[in-house]
């Protein structure tokens, strides 16, 4: 399986939005995080991310199939943030996200750090990020009674 990244444009917005909703809807149903979950966003938010001059959205393809996306932006020219990254549920657990993170890091060699947040209760996500070299910053944010965001950083 070959995983590739390709910069998204507005023509990709609907397809990416549909995958995003599909990927995050199971988490929304479990955690009821209506104000923060990307399944609850609008397509306009996707278009804003795509057109962000301090970042962008990269389509994730497995072979030739669009399976997800990784959205990035930079706080400083060397400090990058990943949010959100998502993979279509039927393609999860195949190492695609890991390859996508490695590739996005390679596209921005000037980065000295990468940051992200994930749901602390989602142990598979935490395991993935820790396996990729991200370290817990110690910062957390309580979303509701069943959901806490945990923040990670990876220095290069």
Provide a descriptive summary of the structure in words.
- The chain is an alpha+beta fold and 156 residues long.
- Helices cover 31% and strands 38% of the residues.
- It contains 4 helices and 7 strands.
- A 7-stranded mixed beta sheet has the order 1-2-3-4-5-7-6, with helices on both faces.
- Helix 1 crosses helix 2 (43-50).
User: Which structural class do the helices and strands define?
Assistant: alpha+beta
Walk across the major sheet and give the strand order. Answer: 1-2-3-4-5-7-6
Characterize the overall form. globular
CA distance, first residue to last residue: 27 Å
What is the arithmetic mean of pLDDT? 97
Tally of helical runs:
4
Based on DSSP secondary structure assignment, what is the total number of beta strands?
7
Largest sheet descriptor = 7 strands, mixed
Helix coverage percent of residues?
25-40%
Strand content: 35-45%
Low-pLDDT runs of 5+ residues are: none
Helix and strand run: EHHEEEHEHEE
> What is Rg?
15 Å
Brief overview:
This protein has 156 residues and is an alpha+beta fold.
Annotation keywords:
156 residues, alpha+beta, seven-stranded mixed beta sheet, 4 helices, 7 strands, 31% helix
Topology:
Layout: E1 3-7, H1 13-31, H2 43-50, E2 55-62, E3 65-76, E4 79-87, H3 96-107, E5 113-119, H4 123-131, E6 135-144, E7 147-155
Parallel strand pairs: 4-5
Antiparallel strand pairs: 1-2, 2-3, 3-4, 5-7, 6-7
Helix pairs in contact: 1-2
């Amino acid at each position: 399986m070959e995983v590739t990244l390709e910069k998204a444009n507005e023509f990709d917005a609907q397809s990416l939005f549909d995958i995003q909703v599909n990927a995050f809807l199971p988490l929304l149903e479990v955690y009821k995080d209506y104000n923060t979950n990307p399944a609850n966003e609008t397509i306009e938010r996707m278009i804003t991310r795509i057109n962000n001059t301090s970042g962008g959205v990269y389509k994730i393809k497995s072979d030739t199939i669009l399976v997800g996306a990784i959205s990035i932006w930079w706080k400083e020219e060397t400090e990058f943030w990943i949010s959100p990254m998502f993979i279509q549920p039927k393609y999860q657990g195949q190492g695609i996200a890991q390859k996508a993170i490695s590739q996005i890091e390679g596209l921005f060699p000037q980065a000295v750090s990468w940051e992200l947040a994930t749901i602390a209760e989602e142990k598979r996500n935490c395991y993935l990020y820790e396996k990729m070299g991200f370290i817990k910053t110690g910062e957390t944010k309580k979303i509701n009674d069943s959901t806490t965001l945990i923040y990670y950083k990876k220095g290069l």
